[in-house]
Design brief:
25% of the residues lie in helices and 24% in strands. It contains 4 helices and 6 strands; from the N terminus they run βββαβαβαβα. The chain starts with a strand and ends in a 13-residue tail after the last helix.
Length: 133
């Protein structure tokens, strides 16, 4: 399983989780087999300065991620990830290592868009960094 995590710095497993997934400067890609971390890769967020809705989820999809973990994520972004078949988890904080451990233990919230967003493609005018529930 490949997990993408939004981060504030370039420190591998010790990187600090970003609370605004679309506006983070970096992502960490972590390949996990069971509970064992197999590979860690740092990548720049090419849309850090600015982006249109859906660009960051599309980029994460191009990196073959199965899961996207962040401190927070707006409903539109969650809906885009679901269209790609990428699971999302929010509420992460601290380091990448801690977030991976929390995710594997089931301690992170699974992020879901509201039913109206899915059924009617209604996006509530939230941007990708919006963390309102």
């Amino acid at each position: 399983m490949r997990i993408a995590i939004s981060v504030e710095d370039d420190n591998g497993l010790d990187s600090v989780i970003s609370h605004h997934f679309g506006r983070c400067p970096y992502f960490v890609l972590v390949d996990v087999d069971g509970e064992e971390i197999r590979e860690v890769q740092m990548i720049d967020n090419p849309y850090y300065a600015q982006h249109q809705p859906g660009m960051v989820p599309g980029y994460i999809n191009s990196q073959h991620a199965d899961v996207m973990i962040s401190g927070g994520m707006g409903r539109r972004a969650i809906a885009f990830f679901q269209e790609y078949g990428i699971n999302t988890a929010t509420g992460a904080s601290g380091t990448v290592k801690a977030a991976i451990d929390d995710f594997l233990r089931g301690n992170l919230s699974t992020a879901e868009p509201c039913r109206e967003s899915i059924k009617h493609a209604h996006h509530h005018d939230h941007d990708e960094g919006d963390t309102r529930e």
